Amino acid sequence: MNFASSLSRRWAMSRPSHCRSISNASPRLSATPAISEDRSNVPASPSPNSHFKITLLRSPISLGARIKGTLVSLGIHRRMQTVYFPHSPEVAGKILAVKELVAVENVPSEAVRTKTQQRHERKASRGFVVIGGLKDRLAELSPPPQRSRGSAS
Amino acid sequence: MFGPFQLSRVNLGGLLWKTPWRMSRTRKANQRARLKKVDAVIEAVRTSGVQCSALTEALKLPKEHEMPPRDKYTVFNPHVPGYRKGIHKVPKFTRVTMRVNPKGF
After folding, report:
1. Structural domain tally of chain B?
2. Where is the Large ribosomal subunit protein uL30-like ferredoxin-like fold domain (chain A) (predicted)?
């Protein structure tokens, strides 16, 4: 305990003032929840599954324009791509047309992710979060001058 | 000629592209796993509660555990003696559904 606190003090003193403040907390790491006193298992009521989660596992190469067109109409362009669709008979028919190539899961609407969101979730965390920098320090010391709007220049 | 198969008198004379008449046990295991995956897709569409004619047709297909081994690993062919042929001889058999064969064959 003492060893750790003395280390942090030394680190604070030796660090030059122009260094960015960095915390070790990563927003992607989930904090372990404290053990609750209440031991009863109360599962949260799950929201109903309203969407298909479709992942292409097998290629449509040499299966013909029909199957390829079905996958394109589902918005799938490459293997291992995942798309989400709300439940509907049209999408169900398309899935069954390519049932040998895809994996399907029923998910609630909270689980739906766009392409950008999926990409963001795939990214590895940097291991740190920037909580401040030189700009913030200067702003603290001397607030930025108020610019008058509409002045003739 | 181009490609890996270089024509020559020797290899044109004999049986070169040999495929065993039956699938090995590994291939059969993989075939069963593929059938189960398709079953899972049909099941997922069924549990979604959506109704469509494609689903009605898909539900008529037998599940992997309901299929006799003969139907899992062989397929009807009118040209061969016995009217049955290894399913691995069908092009794209890993990505095409061929579960039902004509009755009696």
Report:
1. 1
2. 52-102
**Range of the structural domain that residue A99 is part of:** 49-122
Count of domains observed in chain A? 1
C-alpha dihedral (A32, A38, A41, A47), degrees to nearest 10: -70
Instruction: Please tell me the distance from the alpha carbon of residue A122 to that of residue A125, in angstroms, as a whole number.
Output: 9
In a domain? residue A116:
yes
CB contact under 8 A, B95 and A104: no
Measured between CA atoms, how close is A103 to chain B, in angstroms? Answer: 6
Distance (Å) from the C-alpha of residue A47 to the closest C-alpha of chain B? 14
Model confidence pLDDT, tens digit, residues B20-78? 999 999 999 999 999 999 999 999 999 999 999 999 999 999 999 999 999 999 999 99
Answer yes or no: is B52 within a domain. yes
- B44 CB within 8 Å of a chain A CB: yes
Provide the whole-model pTM.
0.72
Q: Is residue B32 part of a domain?
A: yes
Nearest Cα to Cα of residue A99 among A143, A140, A149, A52:
A52
Nearest CA in chain B to A90: B52
